[in-house]
Amino acid sequence: MSARLNPLDLYDVRSLLSDEERMVQDSVGRFVDERVLPIIGDCFDQGRFPKELIPEIASLGLLGATIPEKYGCAGMNGVSYGLICQELERGDSGLRSFASVQSSLCMYPIYAYGTEEQKMHYLPKMAAGEIIGCFGLTEPHGGSDPANMKTNAKKDGGDWVINGAKMWITNGNLAHIAIVWAQTEDGIQGFIVPTDTKGFTAQEVHKKMSLRASVTSALFFDNVRVPEANRLPNVKGLKGPLGCLTQARYGITWGPIGAAQACLKEVLDYTQERVLFGRPLASNQAIQIKMAEMARRITMAQLLSLQLGRLKDAGTMQPTQVSLAKWNNCRIAIDIARECRDILGGAGITTEHVAIRHALNLESVITYEGTETVHQLVVGRELTGINAF
């Protein structure tokens, strides 16, 4: 009799990882098991982001993980970054969102579009968790149409003066700097805006039923003045922010796999112990079929993200490929989380169990950084050559 397969990795995707990639996954996994899972249900209940974990997240090298070591970062490959996202989201989407925003939406644009002075000044401190960033692109009226941007920056001598508002900004009230995208006479440009600048305000969004263990904010700019030295000089137009989003979305293709695995693991344990009609729930055909279906979907998602990571590391990854994986993996995860909540019955509605928390969080994950519909249309455009937006 051959050994039983790992129920959370039926195709032994782990065997396709390098030793270094496995080590990254194991160290983040340990951190999540020991430090995150004991507190995260309570954080969600309280609507509190566990910022006391930031120094540990930084010390593990998880912030700006793929940026070169000369900037105080870990210089990991893309697959390792994906595994970081998967393990963090196995803990909670809010934790993965924090790391995604810091790494892909704030550190990456400074690295990709900034001056050497900007990189040396900000990146080592951001990697150490001493400077937290937020990413100001989405506007209250904008959503899926970022080109319709109202926030503007006007040149005034050696400075820029920014006016406008941004909405649904992760880390907004935690952040020391905001990477702000604004319309200029020269097209859309990016600016590094310290959050203590006069005229800048961040207002936390409350009454959320999703990403409760995460800080979400609205940002307001009332004649916020920053020097030319704070402009990101090496990109103009929408391709700047969209390039950042491709990096972040790549991580988001991995994250929901972790959420789905957490939900499946919980029902595997629960159905062995829960006795109904004189036998364990796990011996029921309907339950086995549901769990087999979850394992099938998780396996597909794992293989999609791993191949996407290999393409990224080869420098050949295309945004459409990211869209396909973001759409597929968010969809499988939210479906699995809801199904697991159902299998848990009444117990499934409390944050004593993980399923309802992941299901609620994934409502945000399936929406942000491109809704499911937007990603379907991106793939449709690739197939037909016709833009249906």
UniProtKB/TrEMBL annotation:
The keyword Magnesium does not apply. Its EC number is 1.3.8.6. It is an enzyme of class 1 (oxidoreductase). InterPro entries: Acyl-CoA_DH_CS, Acyl-CoA_Oxase/DH_mid-dom, Acyl-CoA_Oxase/DH_mid-dom_sf, AcylCo_DH-like_C, AcylCo_DH/oxidase_C, AcylCoA_DH/ox_N, AcylCoA_DH/ox_N_sf, AcylCoA_DH/oxidase_NM_dom_sf. Residues 134-224 form the Acyl-CoA oxidase/dehydrogenase middle domain. Residues 18-130 form the Acyl-CoA dehydrogenase/oxidase N-terminal domain. Residues 237-383 form the Acyl-CoA dehydrogenase/oxidase C-terminal domain. Transmembrane segments: none annotated. Keywords: FAD, Flavoprotein, Oxidoreductase, Transit peptide. One of its GO terms (biological process) is fatty acid beta-oxidation using acyl-CoA dehydrogenase. Pathway: Amino-acid metabolism; tryptophan metabolism; Amino-acid metabolism; lysine degradation. Pfam families: Acyl-CoA_dh_1, Acyl-CoA_dh_M, Acyl-CoA_dh_N. One of its GO terms (molecular function) is flavin adenine dinucleotide binding. It catalyses: glutaryl-CoA + oxidized [electron-transfer flavoprotein] + 2 H(+) = (2E)-butenoyl-CoA + reduced [electron-transfer flavoprotein] + CO2. Its cofactor is FAD. Belongs to the acyl-CoA dehydrogenase family. PANTHER family: GLUTARYL-COA DEHYDROGENASE, MITOCHONDRIAL. This is glutaryl-CoA dehydrogenase (ETF). It comes from Dyella jiangningensis.
